[in-house]
Amino acid sequence: MLVAGLIIINIKKSNMKKIITLALLVSATLGAHAQSSTNPLNDKATFEEFVRNIVILLMIYMVTSFILNMIKLFLNDRLKRKMVETGTSEAIVTQLLDTKKSDKENSLKWFFALVAIAVGLGIIGCYHMTDIYALMTIAFCLAVGFLGHFFLAGRLNK
Question: How far is CA 114 from each of CA 77, 106, 118, 126, 157, rounded to the nearest angstrom?
Answer without folding.
Answer: 29, 12, 6, 18, 22
